[in-house]
Amino acid sequence: NAGVTQTPKFQVLKTGQSMTLQCAQDMNHNSMYWYRQDPGMGLRLIYYSASEGTTDKGEVPNGYNVSRLNKREFSLRLESAAPSQTSVYFCASRDLAGGSSSYNEQFFGPGTRLTVL
Amino acid sequence: AQSVAQPEDQVNVAEGNPLTVKCTYSVSGNPYLFWYVQYPNRGLQFLLKYITGDNLVKGSYGFEAEFNKSQTSFHLKKPSALVSDSALYFCAVRDMAQTGGFKTIFGAGTRLFVKA
User: Fold this and answer.
1) Residues in chain A closer than 8 A to B42 (CB atoms)
2) What is the pLDDT of residue B49?
3) Order of strands across the sheet that contains A4-7
C-alpha cells in the first residue's frame, strides 16, 4: 500500500514551458486535491475533485488545469509556466465514508518541488 | 467561509517541557477541526481531529488538542516535548465546497522548535 504517490519529485522549467504533475492513490478514495505550499502562506487549494468525473476550482486555480483520469489518478497541468508558479505542490486524497456528519482526514503525497526560471 | 488562524509563526520550547501550538477558528455551524504535522521535505501527516464529543482529543505521537467553543480555539498540546517533535504544524477546518461537498482550509502553519 503506497498511499499517495507523486511524480516527479523535482522539476526545473523555463518560463513558458508546460508540464504535468502526476498523482495516484491506492486507497480507493473518492476525493483528491492539489495544493501549493509557499513560505508563510500555508497550503492553498488549487483544484480538487470531489469524486471521479468532477473537478472544481480552489483558491488559486489561475494558470493550472487538472484531469481526474480515473478514481486513482489526478493530474495537474501547467500550460505556460511562470516564475510565480515556483512552489512545492502536494497532492492529497480523502475517503468520503461517514457522509456529511463526518469529515475524514486527508492523506498527502511527498510533494513535487517546482522551480520556474 | 470558514477560516483558521495560527497566531505564532514559531514556538520554541525546551525538551521535556510542555508545548502548546495555538489555533483559533471562525466557522458557521459546527466546526470540524484538524491538526497536521509536516516534517522536512515530507507531505503533511494527520495528527488528530475534532468532530463532536469530548473537548479533549487525543492523537498520534502523544499529542492532544483542546476544543474550546467559547474561545473558538483548538490548541495543540503535548505534556513533554521531544526534539523529534520539531516540525511545521498546521491547523485546518472543514469548509463547504462551491459545488457541494467539502474541502479543507489550512492555517499558515507554526514552526515548532524543540531544543535539547
Assistant:
1) 110-111
2) 93
3) A4-7, A19-25, A74-78, A64-68
Query: A56 and B99 in contact by Cβ < 8 A?
Result: yes
Q: What pLDDT digit, counting tens, does each position of A18-52 carry?
A: 999 999 999 999 899 999 999 878 899 999 998 88
CB contact under 8 A, A41 and B94: no
- By the 8 A CB rule, do A96 and A105 touch? no
**Integer Cα distance of A116 and B31 in angstroms:** 38
Cβ–Cβ below 8 Å for B41 and A40: no
Helix, strand, coil % in chain A, rounded to nearest 5: 5, 50, 45
Compute φ and ψ for A101, nearest 5 degrees.
-85, 0
Q: How far is A42 from chain B (nearest CA, A)?
A: 4
Chain B from 48 to 87: CB within 8 A of any A CB = 49, 51
Q: All 3 cell numbers of residue A93?
A: 486524497
**Cell reading at B26:** 471562525
pLDDT profile of chain B (116 residues), mean per 10: 91 98 90 94 93 90 95 97 97 78 87 96
Assess contact for B96 and B42: CB atoms under 8 A.
no
Cβ proximity of B93 and B25 under 8 Å: yes
Query: B107 — contact with chain A (CB < 8 Å)?
Result: yes
In the A/B pair of chains, how many CB contacts fall below 8 A? 63
